[in-house]
Structure formats: structure tokens, C-alpha cells
Write a structure and sequence with these properties.
By secondary structure, the protein is α/β, with parallel strands linked by helices. The protein is built from 9 helices and 5 strands, in the order ααβααβααβαβαβα. The protein has one domain (2-234): SGNH hydrolase (Rossmann fold, 3-Layer(aba) Sandwich), CATH 3.40.50. 44% of the residues lie in helices and 10% in strands. Helix 8 links the parallel strand 4 (149-152) and strand 5 (184-187).
């Protein structure tokens, strides 16, 4: 009996780690994610006032998505739904994923979140970020079991260059995850934002050395759109 109980324990433990890596949302106090609620309510208001097509690409994530003011034009002929909010971390976005996706049936989801490691005491470890990402994937799959889900590589920036080793580790872990799991895709972009010395190319960013300028968005768009076209072909979309 003890052997059978042990086998059952190992089985369910392995499921927990493979799907969500046992992320406990209880560790995050209300104030760590409630600040984003007004943004999510704005998304819900847009859902009531705008009718989005079912073949749209839904972009979800942080300020680089929110500030992509030319995304509709850049992504033509593909319709898009822009759902980015400033300062998003995976540790707060997972509290709102269900609400953000609830009113949509997109053809594909593209995600970019870059704030879980930024040089503050609240930073997560790379492995913890990966666990949160796995939890996010589980949430997406509950609503959209089979559509392509793409993760854009976190961009190297001068403002967070001291944290780049850990950020780069997150990129590596996510890339490996996407290579292992069907329906997940990794959009490589980082190298395009490094100069000849292997440091962030500040000419592609605004003065805060964190957010992209128009030239930076042009580079980003070319890389992301090319991968979206490839993903659509692979999935016959």
C-alpha cells in the first residue's frame, strides 16, 4: 500500500510541476497586483464597445505592447487586439489572464512581459519567472487549448543591463520550453538590439533607454511579423 501511495504522490507531484510548477498565488498580496485592475477594466470596456474578429492576433503583455502605437498598421493584413499595460509582470498578469482573454477567440496569442527582473528587491529568480510563465500557459490553454502561443524574447536594454545575465537566463529557459512543447513558439529578437560590442544599441530606444523608439519598433515589428507569418503557415492559418 505504501508503494502505491508513493507512486500516486509522485504522479500528481509531477503533474503539478509540469503544468504550473506549483506556483502559489497566495504568496502575492493584493497590493502586488491590484494596481493593474483599472487597466484591465479598460480592456473590458473596449471589449463591450468594439467587435473584434475571431481571426485576430491578440498581443498581451507590458508597456512595449501598450506603447506600440503603430501595431495595427504594422501587422496588416492581420487584425490585432492590443492588450498591454504598463509595468506588467507575470506575477500580476496571471491574476487577470482569464479576464483579459474572456471575450476573445483569437487565432494566435503573442506575449511580451519584461518586468519580473529589473533590479528591485521584488525581482523574481529566472526559475520563478519560468514557473509563472508555465502558470500563464495553463491559464491560456484552459480557454484556448490549441491556438499558437508565442513569446517574444525579452529585449536587452541599457537601463537593465546589470540584470541582463538573469534576464538572458529567462530567455533561455523560455526558448527551451517552447522547443519542447507543441503549440508554443519563441520569437528571437535580442541580437538585433545589440551593437557591435555586444551591448544595447541605445539608438533604438527613447531617452529612458528602456522603451523602443520608432526605429526600434520598426526592427521589432520586422522580426515579430516574420515569425507570425511562419507560425501561421506551419499551422495552416
Amino acid at each position: 500500500m505504501k508503494i502505491a501511495q508513493y507512486i500516486i504522490f509522485v504522479f500528481f507531484t509531477s503533474i503539478c510541476f509540469s503544468l504550473t510548477s506549483c506556483v502559489s498565488l497566495k504568496q502575492y498580496p493584493l497590493e502586488s497586483y491590484s494596481w493593474a485592475a483599472p487597466e484591465v477594466r479598460q480592456f473590458e470596456a473596449l471589449d463591450k464597445s468594439i467587435e473584434y474578429p475571431n481571426d485576430a492576433i491578440l498581443f498581451i503583455g507590458s508597456s512595449s505592447i501598450r506603447l506600440w502605437n503603430t501595431i495595427e498598421e504594422d501587422m496588416k493584413p492581420f487584425p490585432v487586439i492590443k492588450r498591454g499595460y504598463g509595468g506588467a509582470h507575470f506575477r500580476d498578469m496571471v491574476f487577470y489572464t482569464d479576464r483579459i482573454l474572456a471575450n476573445h477567440s483569437p487565432e494566435m496569442i503573442v506575449c511580451f512581459v519584461a518586468n519580473d527582473i529589473k533590479g528591485v528587491p521584488e525581482d523574481e529568480s529566472p526559475k520563478k519567472v519560468l514557473r509563472l510563465i508555465k502558470y500563464f500557459i495553463k491559464q491560456v490553454r484552459e480557454q484556448h487549448p490549441s491556438i499558437p502561443l508565442a513569446f517574444i524574447e525579452i529585449t536587452p536594454t541599457s537601463s537593465r543591463w546589470k540584470q541582463w545575465n538573469d534576464i538572458e537566463e529567462v530567455n533561455r529557459l523560455v526558448k527551451e520550453l517552447c522547443a519542447r512543447k507543441e503549440g508554443l513558439y519563441f520569437v528571437s529578437t535580442a541580437n538585433a538590439f545589440l551593437d557591435e560590442e555586444g551591448k544595447p544599441n541605445d539608438s533604438l530606444f527613447i531617452s529612458d533607454r528602456l522603451h523602443l523608439n520608432p526605429e526600434g519598433y520598426a526592427v521589432w515589428n520586422q522580426l515579430i511579423k516574420s515569425e507570425i507569418i511562419r507560425i501561421k503557415k506551419v499551422n495552416s492559418l
